[in-house]
Amino acid sequence: VTVVWYARTATAHGEWWIAWTQEGVCLSAPGDRDERRFLAGLAGLHRGAVTPGDPADAPDAFDWRFAPPGFAREALAACAAIPAGEVRSYGELAASCGRPGAARAVGTAMSVNPIPNLVPCHRVVRADGMVGGYGLGGSGEKIEMLRREGVMIEGERLVGTR
DNA sequence: ATACCGGCTAGCC
DNA sequence: GGGCTAGCCGGTA
To answer: Which residues of A are catalytic?
Structure first.
């Protein structure tokens, strides 16, 4: 039914694998990852035609049909609203979903973000000023992405935003 | 129902 | 700052 295209292409955070439908991007992963593995992840998300495509055709939006259900979807939607160069704590995001206290659940939700380059889960940090965890390349990758956006970090600690 | 697990928090050394 | 504890919540087995 739904056709999915994919390509390895340049993004604001370097080369990434992206997969997309007519409605939007449904999956992404860092470009240094194995193509085989990316396609395997795609297979788990969508059973149907997958074909190489022209990244110039890729929409800039998220195809929310592929978002995880339940609380994770709400948390990811809230995360998508964080502007570049800014950060929010897991607890703040929880509160904005109407669930103050669900900070830990927000962390879990960020870890299943299907398109980390579009839904900026790297902008969600710990309330004590530490950058917090990150699933992909660990906190190192998170720190690099934040620095690219102008956030100042020393060690694993935030020292200022632009 | 129950138990456990995580990208967390707040409080206390 | 670091280290530890107990409490927290949604998801999963």
So the answer is: 121
Positions 80-99 in A, CB within 7 angstroms of strand C: 99
| Distances from the Cα of A75 to the Cα of A26, A39, A71, A72, A96, angstroms | 17, 26, 6, 5, 9
Using a 10 angstrom Cβ sphere, with 0-12 exposed, 13-18 middle and 19 or more buried, the burial of residue A159 is exposed
Res A1: pLDDT: 67
Nucleotide nearest to A155 (CA to C1'): C1
The stretch A99-115 carries a mean pLDDT of 97
CA angle A118, A120, A126 (to 5 degrees): 170
For the entire predicted model, the pTM comes to: 0.94
Nucleotides in B strand less than 7 A from protein CB: 5-10
pLDDT tens per residue across span A85-97: 999 999 999 999 9
- A136 has pLDDT over 90: no
What six digits make up the tokens of A95? Answer: 């509160």
CA distance A146 to A161: 9
